[in-house]
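Q: Predict the bound structure with magnesium ion.
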Amino acid sequence: MAVTIKSAKEIELMREAGRLLEIVHDEMGSIIKPGVSTMEINECGDRVIRKLGCVPNFLNYGGFPASICVSVNEEVVHGVPRRDHILKEGDIVSLDAGLIYKGYHSDAARTHAVGKVSEDVQRLLDATKQSFFEGIKMARPGNHLYDISNAIDAYISGFGYGIVQDLVGHGIGTSLHEDPQIPNFRQKKKGMKLIPGMTLAVEPMINMGTWKVVWLEDEWTVVTRDHKPSAHYENTILITDGEPEILTLHI
Ligand code: MG
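A: Predicted complex:
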């Protein structure tokens, strides 16, 4: 699929899709505490998406059985929510959510601490989030796509963490996954030139230990091979004439 450049009208719809998704994340984030099941978080996200008049884009995507991906500790992404998976103090939980507003998709992920987490784990959460911001400093016209990848890699390498390679960021628009793919690890090539009107989901997935991951038997849940924790941070962004605009986060 070709890379799409959004018109001014489309950008307005993407902005609204992003703004509404931030509300969904805020609501889900507010219920996280020890004792809550991963299914309850999914139900909260699904309810808010529909209350906002939108459609959850992950539900049934490739057969995914829920609206929100809820991944705990060593689960990297695509965790399937379960009634019997109960969060406990010291866990981390990654919530990946997306919605469709008037035909336009948004996609964002946050990793939350459940109660108090160890210093090591907090450092992983902070570094993963910051790596997104380091990456998008490069997301401006005149630069190339892999400048984003290389900036994420350069920042994370200082921590000795593993960067997931099997899953990458992506273009987004009238489809959840559009070209281009956006790796979070160092690339030898430059990649395509960045052009105003591109909308991209930039989403570093960072492991405390090895970068290697495996798929569980449910064929969805991706876990770290060494069972050490993993964090995920994602926003949908817009390439503009200058600084990138983050569509799913308004500080
Ligand atoms: Mg994504």
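A: Residues 107, 170, 201, 203, 234 surround magnesium ion (CB under 6 Å).
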